[in-house]
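Q: What does the assembled structure look like for these inputs?
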Amino acid sequence: QEGDLPMSARNGSASDEECRITEVCRAPEDVELTELGPLLEESGGPGKAQGATAGGPAGAAACPEEEEEEEEEEGVRVITLPLQAHHAMEKMEEFVYKMWEGRWRVIPYHVLPEWLKDNDYLLHGHRPPMPSFRACFGSIFRIHTETGNIWTHLLGLILFLCLGILTMLRPNVYFMAPLQEKVVFGMFFLGAVLCLCFSWLFHTVYCHSEKVSRTFSKLDYSGIALLIMGSFVPWLYYSFYCSPQPRLIYLSIVCVLGIAAIIVSQWDRFSTPRHRPTRAGVFMGLGLSGIVPTMHFTIAEGFVKATTVGQMGWFFLMGAMYITGAGLYAARIPERYFPGKCDIWFQSHQIFHVLVVAAAFIHFYGVSNLQEFRYGLEGGCTDDSLL
Ligand SMILES: [Zn+2]
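A:
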């Protein structure tokens, strides 16, 4: 028993294959889960988890106070019940201690509780429900289905924190309107940092409990809307530098659409597997609303100017990366074609995460070029230019 507790990803896949062939290991996995559930729930706070019965330890723990009143009549039970309660408490503490030590093991998809069942192409390597934040954060350093999702956005967060701090500390002599331009860049970095932060937190505490996972999934989706809204701000600011009216209109529209996306994200069913295409559609639509100002700019300034000073090549690449990411996410490629082979690495969600970070970085590069162009001009605006 002790020896097979820390289970590696490869062990995990192997045992799952055994499962599919023999179904022998199904029973022990189920037992494992029902044992873990209520015991952790007792001390781990108000976690509503696992659908397992809490009757055993909870019932025993509640009895001693009642029994004390019947002391004279039922002397024997007075001794045994507190002992049972004590034993149950000890067993519980032992389990909680094991959790703190990180002594849990990954489990296959088919034993997950309903609220943790998200992607049935990931057959093994899932974390069990763990209603302890300490255990969840400890799992960052373990190998399971969420490890890649957590780290892609945790490292992305560090990257954008550094970029943001560098931009904010940049000497004001490089800006035409230092305060205004730093606020504009600040909106982009705020959106990116919040998105990446909510995302890695969501993937970390996803297995905590149904309530926590639902709350953080709403934050996660709201973060995507914030990233897209924040990305529009510097792009519109510099692309329509000399025509404040369309700039204000486009900015207002993207704010309204972004807030609408955040409101839709608060809908409880939005996070269910059934609405995966809905989610991809909402955020793709929000991003694709950028087509209107792009058309405006290209028609007014011409294709050549749009692709050179307008940086459209970079923004097109950025858009293509977001759309590819959303498409892979919605269709669950590649795990759809290789069920069980992408449990740990190269699942669609990880590719989507990497594409989001890369797209945001390319967007930052394009916007920085726009800023440089604006600074290089030094003078004001000519009558016939948006930029
Ligand atoms: Zn994610």
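Residues 238 and 374 are 7 Å apart (CA to CA).
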